Amino acid sequence: MSITIPANITVERTQKSRIQDVNFGSLEFGTVFTDHMFCCDFKDGKWQDARIIPYGPMSISPAAKVFHYGQAVFEGMKAYKDDNGGVFLFRPEENFKRINKSSKRMAIPEFPKELFFGAMHRILEMDKEWIKPGIGNSLYIRPFAMATQVGVSASPANEYRFYILLSPAQAYYTGEVKVVFSEHYSRAADGGVGFAKAAGNYGAQFYPTNLAKEKGFNQVIWTDSHTHEYLEEAGTMNIFFRFGDTLVTAPTSDRILDGVTRKSLLKLAEHLGIQAEVRSVKVSEVKEAYKNGELMEIFGAGTAAVISPISAFSHNDQTYDLPVLADSYASMLKQKLMDIQYNRSEDPFNWRHQVC
Ligand code: COI
User: Fold this and answer.
1) Residue 260: left (phi > 0), alpha (psi -120 to 50), or beta?
2) Which of 205, 183, 184, 226 is nearest to 314 (CA)?
3) Which atom of ligand 1 is nearest to the CA of 305?
4) Could you give the C-alpha distances from 279 to 231, 257, 298, in angstroms and in order?
5) How far apart are CA 27 and CA 31, in angstroms?
6) How far apart are CA 135 and CA 81, in angstroms?
7) Residue nearest to atom 7 of ligand 1 (CA)
8) What would the pLDDT profile of 160-209 be if each residue is shown by its tens digit?
9) Residues of the chain with pLDDT > 70: what percent?
10) Tens digit of pLDDT for each residue in 23-80?
11) Fold identical between 10-169 and 177-341?
12) Where are the domains of the chain?
């Protein structure tokens, strides 16, 4: 894809870079931001005033609709640097399409493609020193849009702001990932917004996740809201199960995010000759497979989390520990995926998008 940077993106550079103050060897996910950010306002029926400015606080009225009705959507993407200093995005078209799909569901005006890619290229070129080479280092990119119109009437805003923030990142999960299969709470329902990266989808998970944390678990695997019998996704990741030699993941739906990592792994599995099925997975099937030794591994897949093996799951107050496999699908797929992302291998699917 050839990118033209729209001439109407203005740039104000920071007076003093903060990069020297950052310890790139020890980054807590999502806590450090680069020198610049992109923003653009929607007013009078159009996106305008596209600008790259120094990263910093913004001024916004406490009556802005985003604070009252959660009218906001976001994306998660990453940029990677290869050993020659080349900077790459991974399937950015997918994120672009998805943020507009999320926006549509949340009655937020869609964002223009040339501005999205133009801004992305420009800001990544400006802040590329913040991307460190080496497997495991990346730049997490957080585009988001929110309702800025002042007023607490419960209706869609007529003013919005779109941002792109950049955050140097390492691992999302640092230790073991232990999960609880949800028996009571739900993340999403049919006809709802579960498929969208709507801000409130994430906030609504915090309370049940805190309850899981009190019991020593890190995440909840959400089950279907009707019966709690089917395993859906983890909120920060889609979920894969390996029964024998077969990899299984739930189909996307109104309730499940169409994860970019999820669909990339399905393609990679096919390419590597790993049998993969997209079908509903029952809690009872997983427990049965655990008992008869068929459940080999469970792992989560997402942009931030990459591929995170699950070390234990809990259901009905019983914990099931999973063995650490030397030759897991999780590690094999992660290696293949990262080789593509970091420009260390061929890219048979044309997923890499070079920025500079
Ligand atoms: C991502 O993987 O980019 C996500 O959106 C998960 C996030 C909530 C950290």
Assistant:
1) alpha
2) 183
3) 2
4) 10, 15, 15
5) 8
6) 9
7) 236
8) 999 999 999 999 998 899 999 999 999 999 999 999 999 999 999 999 99
9) 100
10) 999 999 999 999 999 999 999 999 999 999 999 999 999 999 999 999 999 999 999 9
11) no
12) 10-169, 177-341
The residue to which tokens 């080789």 are assigned? 339
**Is 304 close to ligand 1, i.e. is its CB under 6 Å away?**
yes
- Of 303, 308, 341, the residue with max ligand 1 atoms within 8 A of its CB, to mutate for a pocket test, comes to 303
Q: State the distance from the centre of ligand 1 to the C-alpha of 204, rounded, in angstroms.
A: 14
Distance 257 CA to ligand 1 centre (A): 11
Q: Is 70's C-beta closer than 6 angstroms to any atom of ligand 1? A: no
Give residue 30 CA to ligand 1 midpoint distance, Å. 10
Q: In angstroms, what is the span from residue 72 Cα to ligand 1's centroid?
A: 15
In angstroms, the Cα distances linking 266 to 247, 270, 274, 329, 343 are 9, 6, 9, 12, 20
* Residue 74 CA to ligand 1 centre (angstroms): 9
CB 73, CB 198: distance < 8 Å:
yes
How far is the centre of ligand 1, averaged over its atoms, from the C-alpha of 346 (Å)?
A: 26
Measured in whole angstroms, how far is the alpha carbon of residue 267 from the centre of its chain? Answer: 18
Please tell me the distance from the alpha carbon of residue 201 to that of residue 304, in angstroms, as a whole number.
16
Name the residue at shortest CA distance from atom 6 of ligand 1: 236
Task: Return the best residue to mutate from 236, 306, 307, 341 for the ligand 1 pocket (most ligand atoms within 8 A of CB).
Answer: 236
CATH fold label, 177-341: D-amino Acid Aminotransferase; Chain A, domain 2 (3.20.10)
CB neighbours of residue 73 within 10 Å: 29
Helices (H), the chain: 65-69, 92-105, 113-126, 199-203, 206-214, 260-272, 283-291, 329-341
For residue 142, the CA-to-ligand 1 centroid distance in Å is 9
Ligand 1 touching residue 202 (CB < 6 A):
yes
Interval 204-239: pLDDT, tens: 999 999 999 999 999 999 999 999 999 999 989 999
Q: Find all residues with CB under 8 Å of 293, minimum gap 6, and list them.
A: none
CATH for 10-169? 3.30.470.10
